[in-house]
Each structure stands twice: as structure tokens, then as C-alpha cells.
Design a protein that fits this description.
The protein has 26 helices and 8 strands. It has 848 residues and is mainly alpha-helical. The structure holds guanosine-5'-triphosphate.
Length: 848
């Protein structure tokens, strides 16, 4: 830091100063004016009696004078001075002899205080020309005066103005003020430095200002070096504590200011010394050759004299409009500090009270009576604040109260929002539960139940939301309400779909139940009217289902087109169920069973429905042929559903679509299946025919009469033994009587053939077992691989294997039958060959 320390000067001169200048009267010329002038360039000693005109540059109301330009040009003759003039200002506490000093140094006529009154003399800022000098000097209103009280606004602005415009700023202070913070204007300087940096910090290093500290009433006990060191330290410290603008964080005080320190003796106690030192000091302003000459070029603001008015006015304007300088008064500061403290204390209590809400809300629970509880916590906080803070400045108190309330509200708002979310969730859950419960009750109409449940859920939400909306807040729940309604609508749609599906499933079950038995019965009794009967059943069932659907659909409040679509779907579904049932009844075994039943009825029973016993004289062939032909004719009847006219009957207006082909649905048996069925049926019918023939042969076999005579002669003894022994007699009766009955009824042949069949079956089984033992079948290694590789093919293969086994079984039965009768028909021969081929194929597949 460039600090120029001037050696202490011990003055002996004493002088009394007793005259005072009134503001509205022309000031008397100072005695000091007679003091000999220094040898400064362009200056003259203030010896003339002429009074230098002065201007009230800025008045007490902070208004800038319009006359500065006029004074510069007309009164001070500086119009053409250009840069050849200097500007200095004095700054310091009130009544510290500033005006006195200026008058001494520059021969000016600034007002000096009347000692008997001890009151402020300089108000605002005065400016005057130094007598016979090209120096303009500003006398600035003293700081810390009782007249302004706590309003420090003007002193800050005027100090900043002085710093910003002057080349040299004289900081005037009593010796005893050195080391004090406020007394030495350090607080004020701090503010001035800070704002000066903000406003004019860009001139770093280009323009400097000299701060000349003049320590008054220096008694000499503390050397100037010590005093200046104290001041220097204080200045450094306040500079470190400044909040510097961006980009100037590292700037130093020496970038903007130079310092010079000097002392003056006590004016009253050492008047002569005072005068001498004052004159010496004057040299620094007037004598350019003086080593301590203050108006060095680096302090020049480079403003020509004729532009000074505009320049200074602009600076004042800038200072006036700067908000950073509108510093609050002490009272305001106090109010701010205390209100802040009180608000913080109240807020801590408030936070403690509301923290219990956080966990349950975050856990998704509803906090009981949250609204009143939040309100209560907020009231306690504001009441506690009001009690202590309302004593302070009303404006500050109100502002802090609003701030605290806003802070509290914003904290509570998160609970408000959390509770709204939980209300939303709860409303949705209530809706779901209540709707499901309502739908469990028989006869509940979905539309009405859903609307009622929704209304209740919304009411629940609204009630809860209104209860937590606090006064003096702009909280809103409309958005959440809208979202809730939207969610409930979606849930209603989903639930309605479920209920509709449930209803349709129920209807389908009903349709299936209605169709199953009657359709089966109709198919078991084939004939020309079979399909007519089935269609009647279908139409009746479908109509009933449609009526039921329409009735139920009304409770869902469906749109017309939705209902129409559902009816159409139901019709189609009914048709699908019908065709499924027909297909189910038309699988190979069942259809063959039906055909055989029909054939047996015709061939094995008489016109009274009794079983026929064929006599040797009976014609078996004709009834057999007739029954077989009639039965075979039934196969094409089963093959295709004969529906009623789709044009005239609305129940068959089933349009085909991508996934539904009405015409295709009519097909029951394909051509191939019909042929297969015919073949299978013929085979079974032929077996019946052979059976009938065998029974006739059995009844035809008669025993010759001589065999009976021989039996009586040869077996008389045995006969007597038999009838005389109770054991033999009872055994004979147990076996003989049933045999006699069978014989009488002509069924002995049937029993015999059954016995033969059983014998053949056992024989074939025994052979097969024996073959397995002698030639164990090789385990086909590839079969599992096929199964693994292609389950579809494998399944097909297994199906084929099963079919082959069945085929083998049928053929074995047929063979055994024919062997039993001692002959074979050509058809049987073919079949036998076929079975062999099929067996070979099956064996080949197994090997594969
Ligand atoms: N003890 C002492 N008194 C002084 C000195 N200089 C002036 N005074 C007296 O202090 C009183 C105030 O002097 P002013 O010059 O009016 O002081 P000021 O600082 O300009 O006052 P304001 O403009 O009102 O702030 C006057 O009575 C002076 O006689 C000094 O060096 N020592």
C-alpha cells in the first residue's frame, strides 16, 4: 500500500476562533485569510478580502444544483481551465472543524459552527473555489450528526460522491477517534469502498484517489507513525472484509487509493502552532514542488472544467439510483435482526410440531385431522412471532411475518400434496372394494353401482382435500381431483369389461348346458328331421340367450352399437358351441357307435323292438342288406349340418369374417372320413351278419335218436347214482337247468360262440406273449430322438401307432370270428391282408 506518512509537526501557535457565518448572511472573511500564501503553481495566497462565491451543490433533500456550470464559468472563471484545475473534498464526523480547516487552507467561506450552539452547520454539500486558486473544494455534511439521527443514507451517498469525484479526499478526525470503528468512520468507509468498487471498480489502477487523513487536536503523546499504523491496519481489515464484485476478488486497496496521514495541533490550546501547521499543510495543496503535493496526475479524474457539472451530476444520479446505498437505519437493522431471530425461534418450534406428519404421509397413510393440526402449528408459530416481533418497526415486522408464513406454508405444502396423493390412493382403493362388494349382491346393476361408488370416492377425496387446504395459501387440489376422476373412469372401464366377460362366460355356459343334452339326443336318433330338430333347439337357445344378454346389458349402460356387437358375438358364439357339440358327437368312435346302434336296431331287433333269434328258415340276408343300406345312407346326413335358410332366418345371419367361416362351420365329416366310416361300419355290420349265421348253424346241429337210447342203456347206473345222491343231484341241477334253459331258448349257439371267442382271444394273447419271450422286440433307438426332436411328429406317430393297434385289434377280432365260424368272407380276407400290411407298416415305423 502506498502510504505517505508525514512526520508529526509540533506546533506552538495558538489562536482563538470565535466568529460564525449564518447561512442566509454573507460570511465574514476569516482571519486566516491574512496568512501568507504558499508558492503553489497557479495559485495565490488567500490574502484578498474578496469573498469567494460558494454553491450549495447538493441540498439536504439530496437535490443536485443546476447552477454548478454557471458558477464554474461565471463566478470562478474556470470556463477555459480545461484540465488545469483540481477538486478536493473533506469528509468526517460533524463539528470536527472541517469548515474551519478548509477556510484556513483554501481561503473559502464555508460556515463554521457557533460554539455556543454546538449544532450542525454544514447541510448537504457545499462547493467553493479556493481563493485565488484553481482548486474546487467541497465541504461535505458531517457524519454521525444528531440531526439526521439514524438516517445514514445521506452520509453514505455524500461520502461515496466525494470519493468518486475528488482527486483528494481529506478525512478529518480527532486524535481520540483513531482506533474507533464508528468514531473513525470505518463503517462508513467500508460501505463507501464496497459500493465504490461495485460502481466504479472497473477503473482499477487507472484512477486513484488520495485519502488524506488529518488528525486533529494531536497532543503529541502518540506519534503520527503509531496513529497512521492503526489507521492503516483498520483500513486493510475493512478492505479484506468487503464483498467484492465478480472479477475483482483479488483487488487491493492500493489499486484504488493512496493514503497520506498528518496531524494538526489543538486549535484552541495551541493556536499559533495550529496556524503554522495549517499553513504548512496548505503547501501540499498549493505548491507543486512540495514533496507531499497532493494533486498528483494519477489522481486526476480527467474531466474538463466545463464538463464537471454534467460529470458530477451523472455520478450523483448513479449513486442516488443505486439500491445498495439505501441502507436501513439502525432501527430498521435492529428490527430486521430481532424479527429474524424471533421468526427463526418460532419456526424451529413449528418444524418440531409438524415433523411427525412426514413419516406416515411418506408411507402412504392418511394423517387424521391433518388440516387442523397444520393450522394449529402455523397459528402457534405466528402467534409466538407476533407476541415478540410486533414491537419492532411495523414494516419490518410485517415483512418478516409474511416471509415466515410463506416459508411455513411452503413446508406444509409438501404435506398437503402428500396427503392429496394418499387421499387419491385411498379413494381408488375404496372404489374398487366397494364396487366389488356391491357386485357380489345378486341383482346389482353395474352401471348404477359403479356411478354410486365413484361418487362416493370423489366425495371422500373432496372432503379430505378441503379439510387440509389452509387459509392464506394458494394451494389447489383440482389437478389431483381431475386425475382421480380419470383413474376411476379407467377402473370402471376395466371392471365393466371383467363383468361383461363374466356375464358372457355365464351365458356361454348356459347355452352349452341348454344345447348339450338335446343335441346329443337328436344326433343319437338320426333321420331326415334330425337337423331340423337341432336347429330348433339352437334357435330357441340362442333367442333365450339374446334376450338375457339384452336384459343384462342394460345394466351396464352400454351404447347401442356396443350392445349390437355383443348380440352378434353371442349369436356367433352360440353357433360355435353348437358346432363344437356336433363335432364332439361326431368323433370316429361315437359316430360309428351311433351307426351300429341304428344298424342293430334294424337288423337284430324285430318290429316290437325285441331281440331277434334267427331260425334256419329265416331270411337273414334281406334284413341285413336293408339295415346296412339304410344305415350307410345316414353317413352323408351326418356329414353336413343342414341349417335353415340364412336369408329368411335372422338367427343364421352369421356373416363370415377373418376368423369365422360360416359355410365351413357346417361341415361335420369330410369325404375321406365318410369313406372311412363306411368301411368301418361295413366291417362291423359284416361281423353281425356272420354272428347271425353262426347262431343259425348252432341251432341246426341235432343229436341222433340212437345216441339217446345208447346213452340211457349205458348210463342207467350212473343216472340212478345221480338221482339217488343228493350231492350229485344238486350239482346236476345247478349246471343242467341253465343249460336246459339256454337250449330251450335256442341260445346255446351264442354261448358256444362266445366261449370260442374267449378261447381264441386267450390263444392269440398267449402266442403274442410267447413271441415276445422268444423274440424280444428291439427297442427302437430313434423313437425317443423323434420324440425329442419333433414332438408334433412324434405325437402324430403315437396317434398313428394307437390307431394301428386299434386296427390290429379289430382285425384280430374279425379273424378270430371268422376262424370260429370255420370260413372267411372275401371281405374278411381283404381286411386280414390289410391288417397284415398295416401291421408291417406299424412294425416298420417302430423300427424307424
Ligand atoms: N478543539 C478544536 N476545535 C476546533 C478546531 N477547529 C475548529 N474548531 C471548532 O470546532 C467547532 C466546529 O467547527 P466547524 O468548522 O464548524 O466544524 P465542522 O466540522 O465544519 O462542522 P459541520 O460542518 O457542522 O459538520 C467550531 O467552534 C470551531 O471553532 C480544532 O482544531 N480543535
Amino acid at each position: 500500500m502506498d502510504i505517505d506518512i508525514v512526520p508529526d509537526i509540533d506546533h506552538e501557535t495558538k489562536e482563538q476562533e470565535g466568529h460564525t457565518y449564518a447561512m442566509d448572511t454573507p460570511p465574514q472573511s476569516d482571519k486566516a485569510l491574512g496568512v501568507k500564501a504558499g508558492a503553489g503553481a497557479g495559485t495565490t495566497a488567500p490574502s484578498s478580502k474578496e469573498i469567494v462565491p460558494r454553491l450549495h451543490l447538493i441540498d439536504e433533500e439530496k437535490r443536485f444544483s443546476h447552477e454548478l456550470s454557471k458558477y464554474i464559468c461565471d463566478k470562478w472563471g474556470l470556463k477555459d481551465a480545461g484540465f488545469n484545475y483540481n477538486l478536493a473534498a473533506i469528509f468526517g464526523s460533524q463539528s470536527t472543524g472541517k469548515s474551519t480547516l478548509l477556510n484556513r487552507l483554501f481561503g473559502t467561506d464555508f460556515d463554521v459552527m457557533n460554539e455556543t450552539a454546538r449544532m450542525q452547520t454544514t447541510k448537504g454539500i457545499w462547493i467553493s473555489q479556493g481563493k485565488d486558486m484553481k482548486v474546487l473544494i467541497m465541504d461535505v455534511e458531517g457524519t454521525d450528526g444528531r440531526e439526521r439521527g439514524e438516517d445514514q443514507d445521506f452520509e453514505r451517498k455524500s461520502a461515496l460522491f466525494s470519493v468518486a469525484t475528488s482527486e483528494v479526499l481529506i478525512v478529518n478526525m480527532w486524535e481520540h477517534q483513531v482506533g474507533l470503528y464508528n468514531g473513525a468512520n470505518m463503517g462508513l468507509l467500508k460501505t463507501v469502498f464496497e459500493v465504490n468498487l461495485q460502481l466504479f471498480g472497473g477503473n482499477r489502477g487507472k484512477e486513484k484517489t488520495l485519502l488524506l487523513f488529518v488528525i486533529r487536536d494531536h497532543v503529541g503523546s502518540t506519534p503520527l507513525a503509531n496513529l497512521s499504523s492503526t489507521l492503516k491496519t483498520d483500513l486493510e481489515r475493512i478492505w479484506q472484509g468487503l464483498s467484492k464484485p465478480e472479477g475483482l476478488e483479488d483487488c487491493k486497496i492500493s489499486d484504488y487509493f493512496d493514503f497520506m496521514f498528518t496531524t494538526l495541533p489543538h486549535k484552541l490550546l495551541q493556536p499559533e502552532q495550529f496556524e503554522i501547521e495549517t499553513q504548512k499543510l496548505r503547501h501540499r495543496f498549493t505548491d507543486a514542488k512540495d514533496p507531499n503535493y497532493v494533486f498528483q496526475p494519477q489522481y486526476s479524474k480527467r474531466v474538463p472544467a466545463d464538463g464537471l457539472h454534467v460529470y458530477t451530476e451523472a455520478i450523483w444520479e448513479k449513486i442516488m439510483t443505486n439500491k445498495d446505498l439505501d441502507l436501513p437505519t439502525q432501527q430498521e437493522l435492529l428490527a430486521q435482526f430481532r424479527c429474524e431471530e424471533i421468526a427463526n425461534a418460532a419456526f424451529e418450534v413449528f418444524k418440531d410440531q409438524i415433523k411427525e406428519f412426514r413419516h406416515p404421509i411418506e408411507a402412504g397413510q392418511l394423517v387424521e385431522d391433518l388440516g387442523p393440526k397444520m393450522n394449529n402449528a402455523r397459528d402457534i408459530a405466528t402467534q409466538s412471532f407476533d407476541k415478540d416481533a410486533s414491537r419492532y418497526l411495523p414494516a419490518v415486522y410485517q415483512r418478516k411475518r409474511t416471509e415466515m408464513l410463506t416459508k411455513a406454508n411452503s413446508m406444509l405444502e409438501s404435506y398437503f400434496v402428500g396427503q392429496l396423493k394418499n387421499l387419491h390412493k385411498k379413494a381408488v382403493s375404496n372404489f374398487t372394494t366397494q364396487l366389488q362388494q356391491a357386485l357380489k349382491v345378486e341383482g346389482t346393476e353395474f352401471g348404477k353401482a359403479a356411478a354410486k361408488t365413484k361418487r362416493e370416492a370423489v366425495d371422500f377425496f373432496l372432503k379430505g382435500a378441503k379439510a387440509i387446504k389452509l387459509t392464506e395459501t394458494d394451494w389447489e387440489y383440482e389437478e389431483e381431483l381431475y386425475q382421480l376422476e380419470h383413474d376411476l373412469e379407467e377402473l370402471m372401464t376395466v371392471q365393466r369389461e371383467k363383468e361383461l366377460t363374466k356375464m358372457l362366460t355365464g351365458l356361454e355356459k348356459l347355452i352349452k348346458k341348454e344345447l348339450d343334452e338335446p343335441v346329443k339326443l337328436a344326433l343319437d336318433q338320426p333321420g331326415p328331421s334330425m337337423w331340423g330338430r337341432i336347429m330348433t333347439i339352437y334357435r330357441r337357445t340362442s333367442e333365450d340367450a339374446e334376450l338375457l344378454l339384452k336384459k343384462k346389458a342394460r345394466t351396464f349402460e352400454l351404447k347401442e352399437e356396443e350392445e349390437e356387437q355383443m348380440v352378434l358375438n353371442l349369436k356367433r358364439q352360440s353357433w360355435v358351441l353348437l358346432t363344437m357339440k356336433i363335432q364332439e358327437e361326431s368323433v370316429d368312435g361315437l359316430i360309428l357307435y351311433k351307426l351300429l346302434n341304428r344298424f342293430e336296431e334294424k337288423f337284430q331287433r324285430d318290429s316290437h323292438g325285441l331281440p331277434r333269434v334267427w331260425n334256419p328258415t329265416d331270411d337273414i340276408d334281406t334284413p341285413f342288406r336293408k339295415a346296412r343300406e339304410e344305415t350307410i345312407e345316414l353317413i352323408p346326413l351326418y356329414a353336413r349340418i343342414i341349417a335353415l335358410d340364412p336369408v329368411t332366418d335372422s338367427h343364421f345371419s352369421l356373416e363370415s369374417s377373418d376368423d369365422f367361416d360360416f359355410d365351413q362351420s357346417l361341415q361335420v365329416l369330410s369325404e375321406t372320413r365318410q369313406q372311412e366310416l363306411t368301411t368301418q361300419f361295413k366291417r362291423k355290420a359284416d361281423a353281425s351278419y356272420v354272428e347271425a349265421k353262426r347262431s343259425v348253424v348252432a341251432t341246426q346241429a341235432k343229436i341222433p335218436y340212437w345216441v339217446g337210447v345208447a346213452l340211457i342203456v349205458l348210463g342207467w347206473n350212473e343216472f340212478v347214482t345221480l338221482i339217488t345222491s343228493p350231492l350229485y343231484l344238486s350239482l346236476t341241477m345247478m349246471v343242467g337247468l341253465p343249460l336246459a334253459a339256454l337250449w330251450y331258448l335256442g341260445m346255446l349257439g351264442l354261448v358256444q360262440s362266445m366261449g370260442w371267442r374267449a378261447y381264441e382271444q386267450a390263444l392269440a394273447l398267449g402266442r403274442e406273449k410267447l413271441r415276445d419271450v422268444v423274440h424280444p422286440p428291439e427297442q427302437p433307438m430313434t423313437v425317443p430322438a423323434i420324440q425329442q426332436d419333433n414332438s408334433g411328429q412324434s405325437g402324430e406317430f403315437q396317434g398313428q401307432e394307437q390307431q394301428d393297434r386299434m386296427s390290429l385289434h379289430h382285425r384280430q377280432s374279425a379273424r378270430s370270428l371268422s376262424q370260429g365260424t370255420g370260413g372267411r368272407s372275401s371281405a374278411n380276407e381283404d381286411d386280414d391282408d390289410g391288417s397284415r400290411i398295416e401291421m408291417n407298416t406299424f412294425e416298420s415305423k417302430k423300427t424307424l
